Structures are given as structure tokens and as C-alpha cells.
Amino acid sequence: MRILSLLASATEIVAMLGCLDQMVGRSHECDYPPQIRVLPIVSTVQIDTTVSSAEIDAQVKQLARKQHEPEDPALKALSIYAIDVATLHELRPDVIFTQTQCEVCAVSERDVQKAVAQLIGYKPVIVSLSPYRLQDVWEDILRVGLVLGRRDQAQVLVEKLQQRLTNLASQTTSFGSKPGVAVLEWLDPLMGAGNWTPELVAYAGGKNLFGEVGQHSPWLTWQELQAADPDAIVLAPCGYGLERTMEDVALLQKHSAWAELKAVRDRRVFALDGNAYLNRSGPRLVESAELLAHVIWGKQLGIPVDNNGWIHVQ
């Protein structure tokens, strides 16, 4: 089977199921495991990601408005991502993995359908994942396994991931009190973290302050952040690695309310690699929960984590 993955989490699932050798192409965001980086890239992002977070947000919102203006059909063709149809035709995948969860976060099913419609002579199968909560992620792993003929392996993988989370919850529950945790998925403007992140915070032994399980991430005001006054703050902007996240810390520090927050005074502000962990709906969400537990509880947790995946900000 010739596999094209246009979703980073799907790529990781394919790898965990032992089918990496069948992949023929990837999206511009698929970067893990490292060996897939030699594969042809089929997608590109059509906004300028080198500008500030506020400017990126403005570009995305402008495109989103234009996509939903029915009076001008031409504007509805605009998208945040583009697919190289010529490369797609050359690769001739049997199956394409994409998603319907968020058109901002990754190449969407709509983008793929438009590209596939331009192919001549064959039509690959399009498999769209739609994760909003952890249960959806487990079901997506099973769906990928079924498509790849690895249903049994997928079931074993899901059970192992679930057991790790159960073990983590058992340990963090024994610590007693649940500190209030604010996970910020964007820093300018402020955004909380929804979807599966509240579940990860719960497994990590914290009380999630913003965002609901299975719901898109909410925008926040500084007044709301002040009112919640978190015990710990985790910075994990969507699509940002640690280096890019740290560039935005100054945006928070210059706000008059920042220094007054309990988490800041107590030096419990951390950055997680949101691009690799929290925001990627694949097997490493379990590692994301362990990273959250590590920054919340420190050395008493005793679980090894990727020390390159987090930074103690202040």
C-alpha cells in the first residue's frame, strides 16, 4: 500500500503500527519520527508564519472570514494550505490520511478533495480523522490500523497508551490537592486549550481552568486569566516549538497583570513543545500528559520525560 499522510499525528500512528516503509509522501508538518523527513512534501502553508503571533492570528481570521462569505464563491476557494497536485499525481498514493477537526491546524479533507478531483486516471482513498477528545484519538488509531491491515496491532497500542494514562492518574491522585492549571494554546491574543487537553491535565493531577473536553479552544481575556489566577501556567502555542514559544514570552511579561499572577510569583510558568506534544492528536499525547505531570509535580513524579520537550520559563 502506498500511503500519503497529510496529518502529523496520522504519520506517527502509521509509524507506531510498523508501516513507515509504505509511506511515499507527507505534509510540511510531518516531522516525526525523523526518518520520514526524507519523503516528498506535498503541502505548503499559504500564510506568512515568520511574522508575530498577532499577525498570524489576523491572517488566519481574515482567511476564515473569506471562506465563509457565500456572496463571493471565488473567495471560498481560499485556504490556509495548498496541495501540490503534480507531486500528488507522481506519488500515486493508494490512501491519503487527512482530518476534519480543524482547518486552521492542518490540511483538511476539503483541501484534499479539491486536489484529488484534479487527478486523472485514479482516485486514492481519503481517510479523514476527527479527534476532539482522547476517545476519538483511540478510535482514530483503530481506524488507521484497520485501513492498513494492522487492526490487532492498533488495539494493542491503544490498550498500552490507555494503561500508561491510568498508571499516571493513580500516581498523581495520591498527591492529594489538584493545582489550578492554565494551558495557553496561543499567547497573542490569549487562548486556552480545549479538545483533549483538559483530559490530559486531569490525568496529570491538575485542575484545568480553561477549555472544555471535546470543544474547540476558547479565546481568553487578561481579566479572565487574572480572575482564575492559576497555580501553574503552561505555554504551548499551536504549531510552535519551544524556541518560537520562548520568543513570545516577552509579550506576556510586558503586560501589567503578568507579574501579579500567582503562577508567576511562585515561579511555576513552563513552556511545552506544543507542536510535538499537546497539539498533536497522536500516540504522543500520553507523553504530553506525563510532561504536564512533570512540570506540575516536579521530581516527586519520578517518571522519565523528554527534557527537550519543556522549559521552566520563570
Reconstruct the topology from this structure.
Layout: E1 3-5, H1 8-16, E2 23-26, E3 43-45, H2 53-67, E4 81-83, H3 85-91, E5 95-99, H4 109-116, E6 125-129, H5 134-147, H6 151-173, E7 180-184, E8 186-187, E9 190-191, H7 197-203, E10 207-208, H8 222-228, E11 232-235, H9 242-247, H10 249-253, H11 262-265, E12 269-272, H12 285-297, E13 310-312
Parallel strand pairs: 1-2, 1-5, 5-6, 7-10, 7-11, 11-12
Antiparallel strand pairs: 3-4, 8-9, 12-13
Helix pairs in contact: 5-6, 6-12
CATH topology of the largest domain: Rossmann fold
Strand residue content: 5-15%
Instruction: Please count the helical segments.
Output: 12
Coarse structural class: alpha/beta
CATH superfamily of the largest domain: Nitrogenase molybdenum iron protein domain
User: SSE order, as H and E?
Assistant: EHEEHEHEHEHHEEEHEHEHHHEHE
Helix content: 25-40%
The Cα radius of gyration reads 20 Å
The name of the CATH architecture of the largest domain is 3-Layer(aba) Sandwich
Q: Please give the alpha-carbon distance between the first and last residues.
A: 48 Å
As residue ranges, the low-confidence spans are 71-77
Which CATH first-tier class of the largest domain would you pick? Alpha Beta
Main-sheet strand order equals: 10-7-11-12-13
Oligomer: single chain
Query: What value does the average pLDDT take?
Result: 90
- Name the overall outline: globular
Q: List how many beta strands DSSP finds.
A: 13
Tally of distinct domains: 2
Q: The biggest beta sheet, please?
A: 5 strands, mixed
Pfam families: Peripla_BP_2
InterPro entries: ABC_transptr_periplasmic_BD, Vitamin_B12-ABC_binding
Organism: Dictyobacter aurantiacus
Domain Fe/B12 periplasmic-binding: 2-300
